[in-house]
């Protein structure tokens, strides 16, 4: 059998909490498939490079059949060189009492240099997922550097929010998470995000027909999903990590393969103006991915007045965030 050419996969902040879970999933074939070899190109700050070398040793010690090489570096161009997929994780997580947006001025500048380097040295169709918070606006900063790469190749992660929403609905309905379809998260990865249950189904039936507790849907459901990051931070003393790594796996895997008929994925992507959302803003939408690995915003989703108002609130926040970093956008 002819073996596929290895994909080069760059991960930043590789020595951190999320990296410790994500790297092993990539090397195990959970993102790019069981017959797709990978080369891991891991980036860390110089101060954390020794720790990353320890993680690299552990990765090698797993003897992953699909792992065709590793590199641990602090040099941007080495990490992103010829990369086919990039996970931008490296950045500060928030501390108790902070909102994700409070990280903007600390983390935002990181994405200028990284965006420039990706644009200069990565593969021409490299797919970029920003995880580091505030991820929508950081993705906007990285995308603003794109002179060669298509802007649509820059995305941010709201899949964790989709997974959280599905888990809550499944528990409430006594269903499996796989029974829940078309649960799209709209807007910003922040407390204003809108997990739209009104268009979602459980076992093919409308969520509102299966879960008749409207007060729960409008109350505890929405706030649990919107505030889940804070609840984990308060309980653990550290922000979510393994669940974030799993969501990053889901996001990238589902970007590299066609979406099954009838299903949707939540991805924060550059808006094309759909649903009146300003063009270029990195906003979460329901998307599908075609056989060429191109995402498309699902059109014609019916949104009631309450849903529209909620999405608008989150979009307004994204516009405010964009204004706060306008000096970082080129
Ligand atoms: P962490 O502190 O454990 O690890 C971050 C790592 O990034 C550290 O090892 C640090 O040395 C490294 N780093 C910092 N600046 C860097 C740079 N310029 N280049 C390369 N590496 C750099 O944090 P974590 O728990 O892994 O979280 C990482 C980020 O992901 C945080 O911003 C967090 O808020 C975010 N996050 C996002 C989501 C989401 O759903 N979008 C979910 C969870 C966490
Ligand atoms: C999350 O949603 O868990 C992450 O964005 C981390 C955080 O700060 O909430």
- In terms of quaternary structure, the protein is single chain
How widely separated are the two ends?
A: 47 Å
Tally of individual domains: 2
Walk across the major sheet and give the strand order.
Answer: 3-2-1-4-5-6
Structure ligands: nicotinamide-adenine-dinucleotide, (2S)-2-hydroxybutanedioic acid
- Structural class call reads alpha/beta
User: How many β-strands, per DSSP?
Assistant: 14
Shape: globular
What's the short version?
The chain has 330 residues and is an alpha/beta fold. 39% of the residues lie in helices and 18% in strands.
Structure, explained:
The protein is α/β, with parallel strands linked by helices and 330 residues long. It folds into two domains: 150 residues, NAD(P)-binding Rossmann-like Domain (Rossmann fold); 168 residues, Lactate dehydrogenase/glycoside hydrolase, family 4, C-terminal (L-2-Hydroxyisocaproate Dehydrogenase, Chain A, domain 2). Helices cover 39% and strands 18% of the residues. The protein contains twelve helices and 14 strands. The strands form four sheets. Strands 3-2-1-4-5-6 form a six-stranded parallel β-sheet. It has a three-stranded antiparallel β-sheet with strand order 7-10-11. A three-stranded antiparallel β-sheet has the order 12-13-14. Strand 10 and strand 11 form a beta hairpin. Helix 1 crosses helix 11 and helix 7 packs antiparallel against helix 9. It is globular. The N and C termini lie far apart (47 Å). The mean pLDDT is 97. The structure holds nicotinamide-adenine-dinucleotide and (2S)-2-hydroxybutanedioic acid (LMR). The site of (2S)-2-hydroxybutanedioic acid has 10 residues, from helix 10.
